[in-house]
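User: Reviewer 2 asked us to show a designed sequence for the structure in our supplementary figure. I'm pasting the structure tokens here. Could you produce the per-position amino acids so we can include them in the response letter?
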């Protein structure tokens, strides 16, 4: 194909009309626009304020994203480290979608070949350079080239994902990360993750639409002992995650004006430690959990995030001053974990001249019911068509990593076994019983669930979630509808070293 002259290009651009001209960078003159891209930027337009990650927005119902995973050197608090990450970016770009959109990911594995002497036993971490993609929390097909976590994309290979969101998809915070059994923990612990936001009714609430919006991706990348992470040893202890980053920055500065309410989209993309977060001196209201709006704004003094969880948080600056976003010291089961300061928060004057004049300024918490959604209607007792119980355990088996295998109903993961077989349209109540002395955040793909009980106690607002911590020596009960999508997918622990060493089952939903 001959190169187009500048004049020809101008002619073609003109032919596309005024609407096309206003779209800006990222426009492909010879075809439909693939995505509208935004560079990282402070939502207040301030120089030393934490930027939101780069974003790719869908256009006319379609988002085409070129994503690759490669080993890229990044500066961590402990020094430079080579990490397995998306698009040389920590975190990866935020994907912004609308219900009904089609997400196309042209994925490429640019990592080097795996070592020849890898132990290929199932449930032993292996082949850290083999990967795939999971669209965490998406209510989409688990088959073919959609949210299929059984794929194995080898170094040098490309794969095209096409993920179709239903028109009634709930509005909220989702994320993408690799999910190949055996290398999940190494890759997510390395920082391979990004936010995905599905817009809709929640964003249209006038009080929320008026707010500055922040995307906060919490990660604690764990490097190898001497360069690239090549075995599971450095990430195996719970205390391996030490330096938590937000959007790739260690202890960033976040600004809020006096009287201002900001909408924070929080994602816990770490792989092991829990984050019971506090921002003492500021007012907190939670409006969404995982990808799902709560029935109404709920005031609280803390937000509990387990690995995999997301939260829509409204945070209000009261008096000017210096505050922190922190995790207090706490016990995660039998393990004592220290306090972490994640960010410095500065409440500044309402008319601070460092803020861009066109920055939004929200002031009000929405009152009354938040928008509901057809697929998040309360599950009633008489809808239930079946009950199941799953017992979470750990056992010693010689020859496995640290002689340890994590189990569900006494079995470690077997890729060839269907642990749950049921049909589209069934509605089930599941009880998860934890026999171990540490909590496990359990995640189920494709369909969210409604949390009913924790340790036998009813949960007041019965939130819809996709990842729930089962307390140490405790239990949870949830209800779920198997809607819209037949196929095979998984339920697993989101402390990812536990998943890689066995704590996962297959769910087969038949037509
Ligand atoms: Cu676990």
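Assistant: Here is a per-position design you can include in the supplement:
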């Amino acid at each position: 194909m001959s190169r187009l002259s500048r004049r020809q290009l101008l002619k073609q651009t003109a032919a596309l009309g005024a609407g096309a001209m206003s779209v800006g960078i990222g426009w492909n003159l010879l075809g439909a626009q693939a995505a509208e891209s935004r560079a990282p930027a402070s939502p207040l337009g301030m120089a030393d304020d934490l930027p939101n990650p780069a974003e790719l927005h869908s256009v006319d119902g379609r988002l085409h994203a070129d994503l690759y995973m490669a080993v890229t050197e990044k500066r961590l608090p402990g020094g430079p480290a080579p990490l397995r990450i998306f698009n040389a970016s920590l975190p990866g770009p935020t994907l912004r979608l609308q219900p009904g959109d089609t997400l196309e990911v042209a994925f490429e594995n640019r990592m080097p070949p795996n070592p020849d002497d890898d132990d290929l036993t199932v449930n032993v971490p292996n082949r850290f350079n083999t990967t795939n993609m999971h669209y965490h929390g998406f209510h989409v097909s688990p088959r073919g080239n959609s949210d299929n976590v059984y794929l194995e994309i080898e170094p040098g290979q490309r794969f095209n994902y096409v993920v179709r969101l239903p028109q009634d998809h709930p509005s909220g915070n989702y994320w993408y990360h690799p999910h190949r059994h055996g290398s999940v923990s190494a890759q997510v612990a390395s920082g391979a993750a990004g936010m995905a936001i599905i817009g809709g009714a929640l964003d249209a609430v006038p009080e929320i639409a008026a707010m500055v919006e922040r995307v906060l991706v919490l990660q604690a990348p764990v490097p190898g002992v001497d360069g690239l992470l090549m075995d599971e040893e450095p990430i195996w202890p719970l205390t391996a995650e030490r330096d938590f980053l937000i959007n790739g920055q260690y202890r960033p500065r976040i600004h809020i004006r006096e009287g201002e309410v900001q909408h924070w989209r929080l994602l816990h993309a770490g792989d092991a430690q829990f984050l019971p977060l506090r921002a003492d001196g500021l007012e907190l209201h939670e409006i969404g959990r995982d990808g799902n709006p709560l029935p109404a704004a709920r005031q609280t003094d803390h937000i509990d995030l387990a690995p995999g969880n997301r939260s829509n948080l409204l945070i209000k600056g009261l008096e000017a001053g210096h505050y922190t976003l922190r995790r207090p010291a706490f016990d995660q089961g039998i393990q004592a974990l220290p306090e972490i300061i994640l960010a410095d928060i500065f409440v500044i004057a309402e008319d601070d001249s460092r803020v861009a004049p066109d920055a939004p300024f929200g002031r009000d918490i929405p009152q009354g019911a938040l928008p509901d959604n057809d697929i998040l209607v309360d599950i009633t007792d008489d809808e239930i068509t079946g009950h199941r119980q799953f017992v979470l355990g750990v056992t010693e088996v010689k020859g496995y990593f640290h002689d340890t295998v994590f189990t569900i109903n006494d079995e470690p993961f077997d890729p060839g076994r269907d642990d749950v077989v049921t049909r589209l349209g069934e509605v089930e109540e599941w009880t998860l019983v934890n026999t171990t002395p540490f909590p496990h955040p359990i995640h189920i793909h494709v369909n969210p669930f409604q949390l009913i009980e924790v340790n036998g106690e009813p949960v007041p607002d019965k939130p819809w979630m996709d990842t729930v911590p089962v307390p140490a020596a405790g239990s949870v009960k949830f209800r779920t509808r198997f809607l819209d999508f037949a196929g095979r997918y998984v339920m697993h622990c989101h402390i990812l070293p536990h998943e890689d060493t066995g704590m996962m089952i297959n769910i087969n939903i038949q037509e």
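For the response letter, you might also mention the following. The chain has a mean pLDDT of 93. The chain has three domains: 6-202, 208-367, 375-510.
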